[in-house]
Amino acid sequence: MTRSEKQDPDIAxxxxxxxxxxxxxxxxxxxxxxRISMLDYPPGTQLSEEVxxxxxxxxxxxxxxxLQILEADGLVLSQQxxxxxxxxxxxxxxxxxxxxxxxxxxxxxxxxxxxADDTLKTLFSRMRARADTLRATPHRQAFARLNIDFFHxxxxxxxxxxxxxxxxxxxxxxxxxxxxxxxxxxxxxxxxIFSDEIHAIADAVTVDDVGAAAHxxxxxxxxxxxxxxxxxxxxxLLAD
Length: 240
Hints:
This protein folds into 2 domains: 3-86, Winged helix-like DNA-binding domain superfamily/Winged helix DNA-binding domain (Arc Repressor Mutant, subunit A), CATH 1.10.10.10; 95-239, Four Helix Bundle (Hemerythrin (Met), subunit A). The chain is built from 12 helices and 3 strands. The chain has helices at residues 3-7, 11-17, 21-37, 49-56, 60-72, 95-107, 118-136, 140-155, 161-174, 176-181, 187-206, 210-239; strands at residues 46-47, 76-79, 83-86. It has a 3-stranded antiparallel sheet. Helix 6 (95-107) packs antiparallel against helix 12 (210-239), helix 7 runs antiparallel to helix 11 (187-206) and helix 8 runs parallel beside helix 11 (187-206). The longest helix has 30 residues, at 210-239.
């Protein structure tokens, strides 16, 4: 049993309590996507429909739908005679995805930006507190979890639903790279940089400047991609 399976709430109970088939699908899809993104299912892991159906307390048919969407997202690959495998992540292949993410993040400040009300300000204040906790005690899995949660918080700064949808697909294509490439020696430094980003964006939200938040996010994404590229090059040199 993986770390996520131990910490996940009663997924079977959630599915049983879900009011609609769409709600059940969303629960399954989100749980599997998170496990892949947190490397609880590392690249190359074979996902057994039988095991997952047993864990979730469902038949294989609705599970297959979730796996099909994950395959369309590029997170798993179905191979005849082999089964469903978690895909690998390659920064070179995802370079253009990162470039598009940079532009989409900036559009958050121009396409139906939200007014930063008290609810949003409170949410980002909590993100800032979590960033401070992580900075004090850097932890790889906590870093990955905060990265995912902060992305979803940032999504709330625009009411443009197509922008949100595309941004989400692209985020989950790339977010595993951080867990894959960050060496242990650089984790504290990366946590500090990410914490600074969260603080700066939370400050912008506090004064209701979504445009500034979007520019900050784009700049940090660009710098992050550059650091990831350097990490990948260093890893290749060590391998040689």
